[in-house]
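Next comes one such specimen:
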Amino acid sequence: MKKLLAMIIMTVLTIVVLIPFTAYAADVDSVLNAPVWNDYVEQSMELDKTPGLAVAAVKGSDVGFKNWGYADIKEETPMTEDTPVHIGSCSKAFTALSVLLLQEEGKLSIEDSISDYIPWWHVTYNGRDADIKIWQLLNHCSGIPNAATMAKYPSEADADEEKIARIAEDLELVSAPGEKFEYCNLGYCILAYLTETVSGMPFDEYVVKEIMQPIGMTHSGYDLPVAQGYIYFWGRPKAYNAPHAKGIEGEGFAVTTASDMALWLKAQMGQAELPEKLEKAIAASHEIIEAHYPKDGIRCDADDCSYFNGWYITDGGVLEHGGWNPTFKAQVIIDPNRGTAVFTDCNSTANTQWYAMNSCYRELTGNRRYIDIVRCDMFIIDIIASVLSLIIVGIILFTAVMFLTQKKRLAAKTSTAKKERHLLYARIIPLFIFLCVSIMIPYVLGAALGYPGFGYRQVWTWGGQSAVVMCLLLDVLIIFLLITSIARYIRRKEAINKS
């Protein structure tokens, strides 16, 4: 009995002691090959029709990769860890690091003013000259309005860093520098131009030479061939090569691979042998400086994190950032305390990369409570716009038939000139109002997505092509109805005069 009791006690103690450790002992390969996790990711891919997905995971010395789908659907080119992809705003960490490297080299201080290095720099707040510090651009509290300035980005490919930076020339800020957090893409374009100005090298060459190559990221850079990107169009992924200016590389157009990003993740966690100045710059990029918090006390978009140097940094020291450009989405999470990090990227505007990153990180850290998968907004917008487009086309065809038979039908009716005039006004005034509303839909859609100032060109570029087509069809329908209303009035007036 005593032996049996002792065995039971030992078994219970073993379960109690080992469960917490085994829950957190999942190695990379076991997670990436776990059927439950794979089913979860594939569910997201199927729901959003994600063309391809690449995952890189690091835990301690373990590194693993997992890939799904295609880098090019038409050519049936598989997505692999060596497939070059855009990483969107995850590029900002590279841009910030370039500035901090220049600080390590003694060529600038993030406490300096932008105007110390860019002679033409001039901005105002409440009509008075304003002084923006470098750290305020790094931490998105410069007062530069994101949406309004993004709408001014030129579309020509050769628009360089200076041309983009000059969008802010003589700009009126929306808040005092250092006052409020407002995520600002233009701020990082200006930082790229600052890097170029201070280093004396093109921005992309500086990042490749001083950051990517020392880390071993030999397949990374800027303006490199990438996997085919896709947008949603009429319910299907459509191949699309989105235009972008060279000068916006600092905020969202770095090119890399999952295998190179694994090296980046390890470098961020101190698991790589690097030049001393680069090690120090990386450490500085993770540093939270309380004096650099926005004065309004709101540190960033989430309650439990701050934004510093291209990273959302949680109170627990976890670094995160997402990236989105017109045809790619990326996600990075780095947990230095646990030696765990994940990178994901998909070649469309699906949300699969986020669900894959979040769930993989949870598996690696022992938390299997996955977040419910929801279809991405851009797919929903595309489906709604596609259905409405079909309805509008049907109405246009019906209206055309009615217009062709209008004269015959009107001949059988009697009326007066006054009545016809009133009827005309009753039709064209509402139709004119509807036309104005229809023309404004892309601007409203842009504002709803968080980018007021976006119009037809920007919504088209960022994947809302079905919505633009729907708006144009709606415009055609309303103009056609205006024409038929005026034609009806003219025909009825002629008939009344003859009678």
